[in-house]
Structures are given as structure tokens and as C-alpha cells.
Specification:
single chain, about 280 residues, alpha+beta, 4-stranded antiparallel β-sheet, 12 strands, globular, DNA-binding
Amino acid sequence: MPELPEVETVRLAISEVVNKALIEKVDIFRYDLRWKIKHDLKNNLEKDFFKTPFRLGKYILIPTNKDNVLLIHLGMSGQIKIQNKKYKKTKHDHLNILVKTQCNLTYTITYNDPRRFGFIDLLKKKDIHKHFLLNKLGFEALSKELTINNLKPLLKNRTKSIKNTLIDQTVIAGIGNIYASEILYKAKIHPFRSTNSLSDIDLKTIIKACRFILKKAIKLGGTTIKNHAQPDGKLGYFKQKLKVYGKAGEKCFSCKNNIINSSIAKRSTYYCDNCQM
DNA sequence: CTCCTGACCTGAGTGC
DNA sequence: TGCACTCAGGTCAGGA
């Protein structure tokens, strides 16, 4: 499911219930996600208190009073569900966190992930930037650090296509396969263009399109293709705003040519061959 | 370094 | 109904 807008949607929903909440109970049903969940995660988390969650790329991080940080990655098919009714286990629920808020409300936060490409870990606050999943992340897609000057040195030796570069988390953190196509369509840049062939103006246009598309998608709760849902069960409504992703054979909104689907690095890439140069 | 492939998993959809 | 096959929002390790 989850690229930056979906992860941010989930983070915002988690924030509503975990801030200053007591972690009453942690239940782990399956340890073997993309990597094994640490066996002491349960003991190190219970009876601690959550603070305000933040996000790095596609990772959700929830600090605690004891200076631990709970890391959540949703992989391809991960979902977070937040419920205040009695919990009933469903298929592919792998982990539950029972929290009690300051107002004494109780919520079950459930991590569900059919493909188990996601991951959950607990790390020390001081080790965040040393963590093997976080230490190579590039510039945050929505941060002020994403500028031409910062990007240029990273891109100058890259010969692969700009589409492939955009989903490289060590360059820009947060963009995935759906939004890479959407951003390049918005920027009118052809996805096959080699990265180091782009001019400053091209890069500027891409950065602008990136901010525009991602912000708009967050406003609409992300994109639901298959698995993604907001933690309260609502879908992500950016799907209705997609211009090219999943639209092979349909007419381009601008020039009425057919949208093309073509593989780049074995991942489907949608574009208009006429509008994108 | 950079780039490419295969691997990790389950489920939905398609065609015979 | 069954089976074989393809594809899916991610990302790491290993090798060229």
C-alpha cells in the first residue's frame, strides 16, 4: 500500500490516540515479518507511555517516555487499525497494542499485513539515525531540504531513468511507484529520461510537482488501490485524482492520446508519451 | 559508486 | 471448479 501520503495518513490517525497514552498491553501473534520482531519488544514497551509520532520517509516512529522509539513500516500490504470496541482477531493480524489515553479511553491498535513485507522494531532514541533502515534515507520529500542544490550532487552520476531515481529512498524519502508516475506526469517529464540529463529547470519542476501531488494526496487520505485504508476503515480518496497510474489505454486528460504502461526496473510506469518530454 | 536481479510473502485476477 | 500464471503500493543483499 503505502507511500508517503498513506503513511502520513496513518501517522495522523495514530497521533489522535497515542499521545501521552499508557501502553497497557502488547500482543505479538507473529514475529516473522520482513525481519524478526525482537522478542523483548513486548516487555520493553508495556507500562511505558507514547509521545507524539513522527515520520521519516515511509517509516512511522513513535517515541516513548523511556526514550525508546517504536518503528513501524507497512511494506506493501500493511495496515493499521484503531478500534475502541472489543478486539476480534482477523486474518493477518500480527501485533496488537492496547493503549489507554489520558481521558481513560481504551484503544486497540492492530498491525495487519498479509504479505509480511512490513516490519516493526523498537530502538533507542539516540540510535534512530544509526538504524539499518533509516541511516541511508535521502531528503524528505516534503521538507525544505529537498532543493535543487541539495539534489544535484546526488544525481550527477546517475544514468538510470528519473522514474527509477524518484523511488530510490536514498535520494528522496517517501515517493513510491504510484506517485512517481503521477509526479512526472504533473511535471511533464518523460519517465525514461536519464536522471543526469535533467536541467535545473526540469528538477525544479519535479520538486514542485512532488510537493503538489503528495500534499494533495495527504489531504485526501492517500490512495486506495487494494489494501490501504485509513486506520478508522475509511478508504484513501486520492485514487479518484490519479491522472495516469493504473490508466493504461485511457485518454490523457490534456492531449487525449492514450496513456501508456511500460516497465521500468520491472515496475509498471504510466505516462503520456505526447505530454511528457 | 551505480545499476540490475532475485528474493521475501499472500491474494486477486485472468485464461485455459 | 481447478490449475497455472501474472501482477501488486517495498526494499534488501549480492553481484556485475
